[in-house]
């Protein structure tokens, strides 16, 4: 996965206070590959990487993150930004009906979406009307009628029942759209959803027709519907539709397939328009409001790692980390009191065990993490609390009889005290190595 590759790239970089250009280049290469794998268009990738690099070079490292995590965090934030930041909701007209028009290539999923969107609106208490303006494709009107029936939403169509499977509907789509809106006004539908015709490729006739409909009905929202599987073609298609109809939002369909959503990024990036909904199947319910953050994760294939990074940043006490860094800079010894403080940090993260295992850099402590158990921390704390203040700062004096006393005090076997002292010594060594500063201060006291 990307996170594994990043870990490899950054293996030797822990402890740096600021990323160098060379450091970032390595990560940028991996991220570039991840974006291309996700089918983000090449020019978009190029521009994106340049922006990320600039930001990564300008930022001081967060103490809670290692450099790879830091770059991934920046990448994630930039992705979310491009995808529109927050979820953009439909804007309803002050005076109903709100007119929503769907545009896009043939097969993108407009007619299917019309049904889903109408059902979604209906479930929220709206009274939508579907309007069939695809008079180009044989059977298109019937298809919308079927979808409308499923959704329980009425359909306004030019010649109900007349069109046959092999016959193109006749009529002027602009007139149908206007008649549909008039019907909605008359019958008090508060939303009108206009399904339009598409072509296999972008062409002027299609675009002019879509623009004419848009202007005639004064559409409040024009949703550009695009198949997520379209890949590298997303950019040219989106640009053409943006210039042609000046859409207000994007709907990404067929996200149930292999597509990793690169089209979303390409489209949002070149048009600056937000992705508003996504479609994940042929069924009426396979439809959801689009979440930029989830899509960013999908594109990066990072899953919960990003959540983890946020949690680690939140739960790792920065002051504590700074205190430790200073301690070592001053060449002070790591004591059992420090060890206890570390334990408390670890306990905060204990609930994140599953996530920690996925963390870049976690590979070498996977086994310890697997054995991680909150109760072990309780026992460790009990043992440290059974030590005298002097023992805690000078653990070397803890001989056999002191070990027996500590074991008795904590209610554990003496072998556990031995184990703790061993781990403490390891932790002490590790902390010394990390004294150079920066990076996430590992898990020195991790039971295992
Ligand atoms: P239109 O030409 O833009 O109106 O596209 P349609 O709504 O007719 O959809 C074209 C095909 O894609 C149909 O077979 C739909 O069932 C299918 N389809 C639409 N949306 C999705 C989706 O989100 N996932 C999948 N798997 N298929 C979809
Ligand atoms: Mg259609």
UniProtKB/TrEMBL annotation:
Query: Domain named SRP54-type proteins GTP-binding: which ranges?
Result: 97-301
Q: Which InterPro entries match?
A: AAA+_ATPase (IPR003593), P-loop_NTPase (IPR027417), Signal_recog_part_SRP54_M_sf (IPR036891), Signal_recog_particl_SRP54_hlx (IPR013822), Signal_recog_particle_SRP54_M (IPR004125), SRP (IPR004780), SRP54 (IPR022941), SRP54_GTPase_dom (IPR000897)
Q: Where is the AAA+ ATPase domain?
A: 96-306
Keyword Hydrolase part of the UniProt annotation: yes
Under catalytic activity, the entry for this protein gives:
GTP + H2O = GDP + phosphate + H(+)
Known EC number(s)? Answer: 3.6.5.4
The record's section on Pfam families has:
SRP54, SRP54_N, SRP_SPB
Q: Where in the cell is it found?
A: Cytoplasm
Biased composition, class Gly residues, residue ranges: 436-448
- Which PANTHER family does this UniProt record tie to the protein? SIGNAL RECOGNITION PARTICLE 54K PROTEIN SRP54 (PTHR11564), SIGNAL RECOGNITION PARTICLE SUBUNIT SRP54 (PTHR11564:SF5)
Its family remark reads: Belongs to the GTP-binding SRP family. SRP54 subfamily.
Q: How does it assemble?
A: Part of the signal recognition particle protein translocation system, which is composed of SRP and FtsY.
What UniProt notes about the protein's domains is:
Composed of three domains: the N-terminal N domain, which is responsible for interactions with the ribosome, the central G domain, which binds GTP, and the C-terminal M domain, which binds the RNA and the signal sequence of the RNC.
Q: What does this protein do?
A: Involved in targeting and insertion of nascent membrane proteins into the cytoplasmic membrane. Binds to the hydrophobic signal sequence of the ribosome-nascent chain (RNC) as it emerges from the ribosomes. The SRP-RNC complex is then targeted to the cytoplasmic membrane where it interacts with the SRP receptor FtsY.
- Specify the protein name: Signal recognition particle protein
Organism, by scientific name, is Micrococcoides hystricis
